[in-house]
Structure to design on (341 residues):
């Protein structure tokens, strides 16, 4: 069965979006990937490349089809506007392109196995949502939500479109990068879907959604052409379907793999991050050589200094209500730089 996927990004995430696309090509599945380009450089580059199975859609095309997006654009930051638009990218594919089903991916994901492993678990459900599977010490469910808007499947059915249209309407009304009245961005809305809507499947496959916030729960093992996760609590094995490289920052003199609050296992850095960072650098070089209007988003920047790290951490700690400032600050300093390569 042919799969229909969608994602969104601007030129800052262009290399990550191309890495996502390449990872899907490697799975030898039949698919189309609709890419909603949030700036002109990303759109013109992808139009020029004419990559098989990749369909670029300009931001103006999305906004013309859903003019309600323009009504809130000025009051949202770029990140908030991307969150606001996520549900509309799915609606565009289902309503305008009339595909039978569509799955949204975050652009900073990379597939090591076929997404069909997740989709086929839905049985009679018409919507799939994926939990964060937080490690206990990183559990942010109360603020950020139980589920992650990273892999979301919707069928083109009445029940699924009811959920999707409710979600897009809610995001037009409120979608900000802050916690307020039980909401956070576009994501916290998902928490009550299993109780309010019919046909919601909660993905239980731990291989879908390995990320910095849950990597400590697993032992990652390398196979000849794939990776396998072993869940520490039960010793259950899962093929790794995708990793979500959230928070990765590339610099001219290295990479910050993710936020320093997360303790990444050594094998995750060695097996996954090093190869992914190398691929991104290769793609950045290729894009620059092929497209004169593109300038690498990281080549001119170096790691922030220690003062910047301390200032950022102090700001976050002052907003925290957990424990005494002095004891947490000591922990913060020990964490600085541990996710650099």
């Amino acid at each position: 069965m042919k799969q229909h996927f969608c994602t969104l990004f601007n030129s800052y995430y262009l290399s990550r979006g191309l890495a996502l696309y390449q990872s899907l090509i490697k799975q030898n599945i039949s698919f189309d990937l609709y890419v909603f380009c949030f700036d002109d450089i990303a759109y013109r580059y992808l139009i020029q490349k004419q990559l098989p199975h990749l369909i670029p859609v300009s931001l103006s095309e999305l906004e013309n089809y859903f003019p309600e997006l323009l009504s809130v654009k000025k009051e949202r930051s770029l990140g908030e506007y991307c969150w606001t638009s996520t549900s509309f990218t799915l609606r565009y594919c289902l309503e305008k392109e009339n595909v039978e089903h569509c799955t949204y991916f975050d652009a900073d994901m990379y597939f090591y196995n076929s997404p069909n492993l997740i989709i086929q678990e839905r049985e009679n459900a018409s919507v799939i949502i994926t939990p964060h599977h937080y490690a206990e010490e990183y559990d942010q469910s109360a603020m950020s939500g139980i589920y992650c808007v990273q892999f979301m499947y919707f069928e083109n059915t009445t029940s699924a479109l009811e959920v999707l249209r409710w979600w897009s309407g809610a995001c037009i009304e409120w979608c900000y990068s802050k916690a307020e009245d039980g909401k956070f961005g576009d994501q916290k809305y998902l928490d009550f879907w299993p109780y309010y809507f019919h046909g919601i499947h909660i993905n239980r496959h731990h291989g879908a959604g390995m990320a910095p916030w849950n990597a400590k729960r697993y032992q990652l093992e390398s196979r000849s052409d794939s990776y396998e996760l072993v869940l520490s609590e039960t010793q259950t094995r899962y093929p790794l379907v995708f990793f979500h490289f959230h928070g990765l920052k590339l610099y001219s003199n290295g990479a910050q793999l993710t936020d320093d609050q997360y303790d990444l296992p050594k094998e995750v850095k060695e097996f996954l991050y090093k190869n992914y960072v190398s691929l991104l650098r290769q793609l950045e070089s290729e894009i620059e050589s092929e497209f004169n209007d593109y300038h690498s988003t990281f080549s001119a920047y170096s790691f922030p200094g220690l003062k910047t790290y301390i200032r950022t951490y102090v700001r976050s700690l002052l907003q925290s209500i957990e424990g005494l400032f002095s004891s947490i600050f000591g922990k913060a300093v020990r964490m600085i730089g541990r996710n650099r390569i």
User: Anything to note?
Assistant: Confidence is low (pLDDT under 50) at residues 319-334. The radius of gyration is 20 Å. The CA atoms of residues 91 and 165 lie 8 Å apart.
